[in-house]
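seq as requested:
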Amino acid sequence: MGRAEFVQELKTLVNDVQEMPDGRVVFPYLVQTGKFAGKQLRIGFEIPQDFPAIPPSGPHISPHILPLQSGGSHPSGGIHASSSFGPEWQYWSRPIKGVWDQTDRSVKVILAHLRHLFDTQGE
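struct tokens:
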């Protein structure tokens, strides 16, 4: 499938996909549930060349909505400055690798994972 197919599938699911250099994509995202419901964000992913064998790592999110915290786990830990998207972005270390092989390895699965991350942010 590769990066081009990832982008094409994303464009069928999301309006306004921006392709960036080095296999990065950015798109607007309106959070539907959780404590950030109603918040308009930008989401970025770095797409591996060998997608779908390898999924993208966790999402890059702009603007910053959680404090940076290198240790810990979801929902508040593993939040880093994004070195690949810029200073207004943060990287959430939330890989989907553990269950990736049990899915159809599609962009829909990645967007469902993203929604789950926001669903489980708590109050």
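The chain is about 25% helix and 20% strand.
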